[in-house]
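Design job #97: recover the sequence.
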């Protein structure tokens, strides 16, 4: 590949096909139904509630296109290599001594003059573009016929056939004692923080008025249910609580009255005996002696243990891969399409192929060497614990397609009396649900490329003023030793404002040379051979560059952003090798191709059919670029910093379709947010990454994955292209039945991720000891010392296939599907579907669809039992789904979905959407229902107790009544910490923690260590919380009770069970759901 011309429009060979059944060569960019994504940091950070859309004076009239017609052209062929082409307009800065001395500080605009003759860099171009070229991302709430009429009386549940060997879960669910069933009343719950909520704006008007017969737009499916006890454990007794009536109220759920079923006629054998455990219910009547609405707040289920991974499937199939890698929305796969249509929740899976393993657990690596990887001849399934050996060990049967395959001679082993291979204990691939195969050379379509990191950095005035450039430069420098792939790692930089600045960092130079290109309309790459350099060879030049970068531009007053042309330039430089492109963007792209308009966030648009258009890219340039980047194995992460509108909807597309993520730091200031950026950029650079990956999930005959949701691009119908993938990324997919009836008793799923390794941890050891690593490494090799360090000892560039296999039972019984539902996986799919829906519909429609699906599911469930039981006014739900309504409510209040115009800034909304589309289940659930803990009592206790830290980690319900005005609390959503100081918190505590700032306005105070035990203890807690959740860095935000509007948007908006602004509280929400379930019941 090294000889391939980067500018040539032909594509480098793609590493995809072999391992996976014949994918077509072309990338189909927009098949992806996955919408937005990209884990960003920011969206969950406070933004000033009232910030109006900003105006960039110079941009407002810019036209949307560059001068060359289509959104994106193939790069000019061999422009820079061809001597016959006239020399490009380059400004070479004459070398002088001292780092960058030849670059007079703000080198532009004067330096950019060389090419002025060609085209003025600024101003509207008479562009024509072809908007039809790229279609909008399809959004995938596909509607399915929902044959279950709302309200029709249940026909009676179908119960498990004798053939289904499904262990009955132990009965642990509880029933609350039946309450008098008076009609639910709908008295609104009073908000106790009216003023605080003002900035949050009223908003979810659709909730109460949703027509009962509205058609669900989401596909129907089934869900399984794990059953956990969700009841709230009372927190530390709030001595003399200010809220006596409530504080005690959150005691655990009322004990249940068993025997409910006994009053009914005999149920079908085998299932009814466990009926009592099948569902839980809430009595909807009013509480005796109370005028409160009919629900007992304290009895409501709450996920105070966070995400609890279901384990029933693992008990049934111990050889399955761990649920951290693959979770089904129900572990009971329906055997018929009619059953699917009665399961109104998504039927599908959530896959996190590289999820981090706990310390000490590793995915075994299997090298078949000359034997070749054992796979099914027909369906290409990888050998796994569920294949069976027959014919004295000479044949094996594929568990997915049932084909009988020959066992290669090298792989032959005799069978014992039970039919097991005698060598099975030495064969991880036959006893582990997750393994990693070393891929032989035929799995490589091109030789391994060295890891490449390319940085595209905005240096316009706003970027300079924010301090972002300095933090980025320092962080990159500090990570140079840790970048994977040493000694082959390649690195390069482009900076831009109204012109594009290239850097020659050839190792023979003592300092980098800058080349400025100002012809934005016909982008070319000067010095094509020296813009990407080997990091080891050019290390000192790179370091010099990073040291100088912040000061080089410190006096820059350029307000323009030629982002599009800079992006094209980066693409041209990288296309030969592929790699990771990190974009640091601080302003709205204003010049050249890809310039964006100040679309603004118009109040009048909300609630109309045009609303969703704000949340999708306007200029096809970005999608086309994303498609090209993916094709050339370039993964993009976008870091966005502006305090003004920068059209994250458009720019984030680059991350979405290249398997990347969006980090968002609105109104970035290095003094405040520097640490967060430093941590997250370091993690991005150093976390384990699988390169040039493709992923496919196979499943047994009769079922099929039909839609995929997350950050990726689909290559062929079921192959996900992922130029770079890591442990922080998850993907969701929906399943449908191809046949009307499944006849098998078990179905199998197999996820296969083919990727290239670029780690070489052996080096890391030495890097820390001695900078002359290479020498040391060679000595080690000469001596034949073998080292096993960390997880991988693979040589650089090895290809691997990580395979996860899972079996699940097929059932003929709807109640079994519900019993085996996995709320975490369902919420994960729900979120993705709802966010995708906001790209083609109003926010309100997306929220309504969430609620409607919950209603339909619970109604169907209720119908299962209505015949046998007098359910009266009770709301019943499967134990496994007891948190679903609350997560649904939290989802409707999350940044991508909540409210309307004023409830979240447009960029913040889009960034949050990109982020949530990629989050693994656990992180998503924590974001939706953050953890609230009380810490003041812990701080006051003498330290030294064992487990004292664990003791305070008890989570509290997210209601304002959980907050004692004498307390100190931490609210943690995984993206930031909010430390809430009660109004009457002991001054001692405040003084100890804040020092001299204790009385100051807390928005101006940062938490730092004071010289006392209490302060150190608090910081220890904060540190512990961060360690538990390292994928993002949580800044601490301090807020005092009553400090408005900060308290509102920092903390109160997280109290998702409260009625906030115009949104429903938990009780109201349940009442609405219950009322709709009962309509026409
Ligand atoms: Zn097969």
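Job complete. Output follows.
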């Amino acid at each position: 590949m090294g000889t391939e011309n980067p500018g040539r429009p032909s594509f480098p060979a793609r590493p995809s096909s072999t391992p996976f059944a014949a994918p077509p060569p072309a990338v189909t960019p927009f098949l992806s139904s996955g919408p937005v994504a990209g884990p960003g940091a920011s969206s969950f950070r406070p933004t000033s509630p009232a910030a109006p859309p900003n105006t960039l004076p110079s941009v407002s009239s810019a036209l949307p296109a560059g001068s060359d017609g289509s959104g994106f052209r193939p790069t000019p062929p061999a422009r820079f290599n061809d001597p016959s082409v006239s020399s490009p307009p380059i400004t070479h800065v004459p070398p002088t001594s001292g780092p960058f001395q030849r670059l007079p500080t703000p080198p532009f605009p004067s330096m950019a003059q060389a090419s002025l003759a060609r085209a003025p860099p600024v101003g509207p171009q008479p562009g024509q573009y072809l908007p039809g070229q790229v279609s909008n991302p399809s959004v995938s709430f596909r509607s399915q016929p929902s044959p279950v009429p709302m309200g029709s009386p249940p026909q009676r549940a179908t119960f498990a056939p004798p053939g289904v060997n499904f262990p009955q879960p132990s009965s642990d669910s509880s029933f609350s004692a039946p309450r008098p069933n008076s009609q639910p009343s709908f008295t609104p719950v009073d908000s106790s923080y009216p003023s605080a909520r003002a900035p949050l704006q009223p908003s979810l008007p659709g909730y109460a008025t949703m027509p009962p017969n509205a058609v669900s737009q989401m596909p129907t499916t089934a869900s399984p249910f794990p059953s956990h006890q969700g009841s709230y454990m009372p927190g530390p007794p709030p001595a003399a609580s200010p809220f006596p009536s409530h504080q005690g109220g959150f005691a655990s759920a009322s004990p249940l009255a068993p025997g409910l079923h006994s009053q009914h006629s005999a149920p079908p054998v085998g299932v009814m005996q466990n009926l009592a455990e099948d569902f839980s219910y809430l009595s909807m009547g009013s509480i005796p002696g109370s005028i409160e609405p009919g629900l007992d707040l304290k009895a409501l289920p709450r996920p105070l243990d966070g995400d609890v991974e279901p384990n029933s499937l693992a008990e049934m199939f111990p050889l399955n891969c761990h649920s951290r890698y693959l979770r089904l929305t129900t572990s009971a796969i329906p055997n018929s399409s009619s059953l699917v249509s009665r399961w109104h929740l998504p039927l599908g899976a959530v896959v996190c192929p590289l999820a981090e393993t706990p310390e000490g657990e590793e995915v075994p690596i299997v090298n078949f060497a000359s034997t070749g990887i054992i796979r099914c001849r027909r369906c290409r399934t990888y050998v796994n614990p569920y294949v069976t050996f027959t014919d004295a060990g000479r044949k094996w049967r594929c568990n997915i397609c049932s084909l009988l395959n020959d066992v290669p001679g090298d792989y032959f082993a005799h069978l014992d009396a039970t039919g097991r291979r005698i060598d099975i204990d030495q064969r991880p691939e036959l006893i582990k649900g997750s393994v990693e195969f070393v891929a032989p050379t035929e799995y490589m379509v091109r030789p391994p490329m060295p890891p490449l990191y390319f940085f595209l950095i905005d240096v316009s005035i706003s970027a300079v003023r924010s301090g972002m450039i300095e933090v980025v430069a320092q962080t990159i420098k500090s990570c140079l030793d840790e970048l994977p792939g040493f000694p082959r790692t390649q690195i390069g930089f482009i900076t831009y404002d109204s012109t594009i600045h290239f850097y020659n960092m050839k190792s023979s130079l003592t300092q980098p040379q800058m080349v400025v290109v100002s012809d934005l309309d016909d982008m070319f790459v000067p010095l094509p051979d020296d813009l990407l350099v080997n990091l080891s060879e050019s290390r000192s030049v790179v370091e010099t560059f990073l040291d100088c970068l912040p000061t080089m531009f410190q006096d820059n007053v350029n307000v323009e952003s030629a982002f599009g042309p800079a992006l094209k330039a980066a693409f041209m430089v990288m296309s030969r090798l592929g790699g990771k492109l990190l974009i640091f963007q601080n302003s709205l792209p204003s010049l050249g191709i890809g310039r964006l308009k100040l679309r603004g966030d118009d109040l009048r648009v909300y609630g109309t059919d045009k609303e969703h258009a704000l949340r999708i890219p306007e200029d096809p340039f970005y999608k086309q670029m994303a498609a090209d980047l993916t094709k050339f194995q370039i993964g993009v992460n976008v870091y966005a910093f502006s305090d003004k509108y920068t059209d994250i909807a458009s720019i984030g597309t680059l991350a979405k379709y290249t398997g990347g993520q969006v980090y968002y730091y609105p109104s970035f200031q290095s003094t405040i947010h520097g640490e967060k950026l430093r941590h997250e950029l370091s993690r991005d650079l150093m976390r384990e990454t699988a390169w040039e990956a493709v992923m496919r999930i196979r499943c047994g005959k009769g079922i099929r994955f039909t839609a995929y949701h997350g950050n990726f691009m689909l290559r062929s119908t079921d192959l996900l292209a992922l130029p770079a993938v890591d442990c922080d990324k998850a993907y969701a997919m929906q399943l449908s039945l191809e046949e009307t009836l499944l006849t098998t008793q078990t179905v199998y799923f197999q996820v296969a991720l083919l990727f290239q390794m670029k780690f070489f941890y052996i080096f890391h050891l030495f890097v820390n000891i001695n900078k002359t690593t290479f020498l040391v490494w060679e000595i080690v090799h000469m001596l034949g010392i073998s080292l096993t360090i960390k997880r991988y000892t693979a040589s650089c560039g090895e290809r691997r296939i990580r395979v996860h296999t899972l079996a699940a039972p097929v059932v003929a019984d709807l109640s079994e599907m519900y019993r085996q539902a996995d709320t975490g996986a369902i919420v994960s799919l729900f979120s993705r579907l709802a966010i995708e829906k906001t790209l083609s519909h109003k926010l309100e429609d997306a929220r309504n669809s969430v609620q409607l699906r919950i209603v339909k599911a619970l109604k169907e469930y209720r119908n299962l039992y209505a015949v046998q039981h007098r359910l009266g006014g009770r709301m019943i739900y499967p134990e496994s789904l007891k948190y679903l309504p609350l997560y649904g409510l939290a989802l409707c209040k999350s940044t991508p979905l909540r409210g309307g115009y004023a409830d979240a800034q447009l960029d913040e909304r889009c960034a949050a959407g990109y982020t949530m589309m990629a989050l693994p289940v656990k992180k998503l659930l924590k974001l939706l229902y953050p953890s609230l803990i009380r810490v003041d009592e812990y701080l006051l206790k003498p330290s030294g107790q064992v487990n004292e830290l664990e003791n305070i980690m008890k989570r509290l319900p997210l209601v304002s009544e959980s907050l004692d005005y004498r307390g100190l609390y931490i609210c943690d959503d995984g993206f930031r910490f909010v430390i809430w100081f009660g109004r009457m918190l002991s001054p001692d505590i405040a003084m100890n923690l804040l020092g001299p700032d204790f009385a100051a306005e807390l928005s101006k105070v940062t938490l730092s260590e004071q010289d006392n035990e209490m302060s150190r203890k608090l910081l220890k807690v904060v540190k512990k919380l961060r360690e538990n959740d390292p994928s993002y860095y949580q800044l601490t935000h301090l807020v005092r009770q009553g400090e408005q509007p900060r308290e509102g948007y920092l903390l109160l908006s997280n109290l998702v069970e409260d009625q906030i602004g115009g949104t429903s509280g938990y009780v109201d929400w349940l009442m609405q759901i219950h009322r709709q379930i009962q309509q026409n019941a």
